[in-house]
Amino acid sequence: MFTSVSIVILCYLLLVVFIFFYQRNLLYHPFENNYTSEEANFSYEEIFVPTSNGSKLKAWFHKKDLKQKKTLVFFHGNAGNLSNRIYKLNLIKNFDINFLIVAYRGFSGNKGIPTEEGLYQDARDVLKWINKQEIADKQIIIYGESLGTGVSIEVAQNKKYAGIILESPFTSMVDAGKHYYSYLPVSLLLKDRYESINKLKNIKIPILVMHGERDKIVPFYMGKKIFEQANEPKHSYFPKEDDHMMEYNEKLLQVIQRFLKSI
Hints:
The protein is an alpha/beta fold. Helix content is 37%, strand content 16%. α3 (116-132) crosses α4 (147-156). The longest helix has 24 residues, at 4-27. It is globular, with a radius of gyration of 19 Å. The model has no long low-confidence stretch (mean pLDDT 94).
């Protein structure tokens, strides 16, 4: 006969098993739409970037001058489609740069299932494709948004890109998992680990770290730690009242503009 203690233990073990098999559904939310519904006021070409696994990734390419101006490559966060970033792109288009925003596998109608290694490969394939457009690494700016900071740090290691911008970065998915699921053995369960903090030493290009101090999704201390451990030259923007960098305002734009002019 089950005792109350054994029932609790059994329920906990069932929860652990469920989390282990369902964890990627908790991490990746390609169909979530919790952003603004602004209309795009920038011109772009919708393209499909070929990948090494034979599929294609949907992307928007805003071109001003591919030969003379730098190109920002935007790796988005863990939720929603390309349209969810229009409110940011409407402002980024004001900078004197080209930009490409690309959707990962499983997002924005792309085939495939998102995983850590899968997203890394998607990013590498996109950057190789950019190089084939006769855009050299020194003309590329990497931009990572939330989960995209883990992707950005991975692909920027030991590369000579013009610079990297990290919006709401996390130290590792293990740390983030422990923050949300302190009652679970996260280190043992987690498949997609995104160990960004351990890779920072290999980022040897100018870096801008942006993180709202009231972030309820990625704790602010993570962005601060990323900045503190980053190599020089490094820049930061830590707005006190912002939550997950949702306030794309004039001050933030000035910070990004100064960074772009410095690289």
